[in-house]
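Q: I have 97 residues here and want to know how they pack in 3D. Can you give me a structure?
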Amino acid sequence: MGRTMEEQTKLEKRRVGLVEIAYLEDTPPHEDVSDEEALPIVLWLHGGYVTHREWEPQREHFGKKPWRSVYVDLPGHGGSSRCVDRYDVELFARDML
């Protein structure tokens, strides 16, 4: 498949409360887009026991579309730090907002 997502795009981190969230933001170049900030955002979230790498095949396909994609490592997965107290979908959803 070629290079991994980490090799293609730098893994970034952002602190949300007590957790540090790791993510990749990918905005493929498009000649018809003058303002990348105006592009719609697609947030890619994985299930349990995997990481943002789960989306590599989709990234190759959807990377040709005019939108910004954000591939997230949920707390306790991949490059994100562990949760302090609990892991649940409600907490993950709040962290993503």
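Q: Anything worth noting?
A: The first strand starts at residue 12 and ends at 16. DSSP finds three helices and four strands in the chain.
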